[in-house]
Amino acid sequence: MMVSKKMAAALNEQVKNEFFAYWTYLQMSYSFNSMGLSVFSKWYNEQAMEEQGHAMKIADYLLDQGAEVELLSLDKPKADYKSAEEVVQAALDHEIMVTQQINALASLAREEHDYATENFLQYYVQEQVEEVATATELLDLVKMSDSTGQLLMLENRIMALRTEG
Q1: Nearest 5°: CA angle at 48, between 76 and 130?
Q2: Alpha carbons 49 and 137: distance in angstroms, whole number
Q3: What are the CA-CA distances from residue 83 to residues 51, 86, 145 (Å)?
Q4: How far apart are alpha carbons 140 and 100 in whole angstroms?
Q5: pLDDT tens sequence across 83-105
Q6: Over 90: is that where the pLDDT of 141 sits?
Q7: What's the domain range around 54?
Q8: For 29-46, what is each residue's pLDDT tens digit?
Q9: What is the CATH number of the domain that holds 146?
Q10: Number of domains comprising the chain
């Protein structure tokens, strides 16, 4: 195994975290669908698929390093959102938490002089900068809306966020 047991365990934990993000965003997508906000629903469905890809990429890295992948159990994501703003705020909070998780992994890799893993994690470090910025902008847009009608008018701008940058 080319990564330490401690690093393998931490990366397996991050696989779980990324799959939990997948479940969380999928639930958010369904919540938006129930609110009649189909573009928001699509946004979070695409976000869910991205998180699933992150989990798979980390799992593949573990395998490439000769480590075992252990799928850990997931908690049930929150499902009882009362408003679009509550969902988007929860998504931003989640991205901030994931940023902390990725930073802890990068710190561990550096501490262990595991340059391959440190290099691998740089993608995720940069990804989190973008994720937090986009989630913050989305929350700002939602906060400017006083009604469902205004949220519907924002939907074109929201999907443009996915293609910018």
Answers
A1: 120
A2: 20
A3: 23, 5, 12
A4: 22
A5: 999 999 999 999 999 999 999 99
A6: no
A7: 5-160
A8: 999 999 988 889 999 999
A9: 1.20.1260.10
A10: 1
Name residue 124's amino acid: Y
- Scored b (16 or more CB within 10 A) or e, 6-45 reads ebbebbbbbbbbbbbbbbbbbbbbbbbeebebebbbbbbb
In a domain, 165, yes or no: no
Q: How far apart are the C-alpha atoms of 53 and 129, rounded to whole Å? A: 18
- Calculate the average pLDDT of the chain: 93
Whole-number Å distance between alpha carbons of 30 and 150: 20
Q: Is position 56 within any domain?
A: yes
Q: What is the DSSP string of 49-109?
A: HHHHHHHHHHHHHHHHTTPPP-----PPPP----SHHHHHHHHHHHHHHHHHHHHHHHHHH
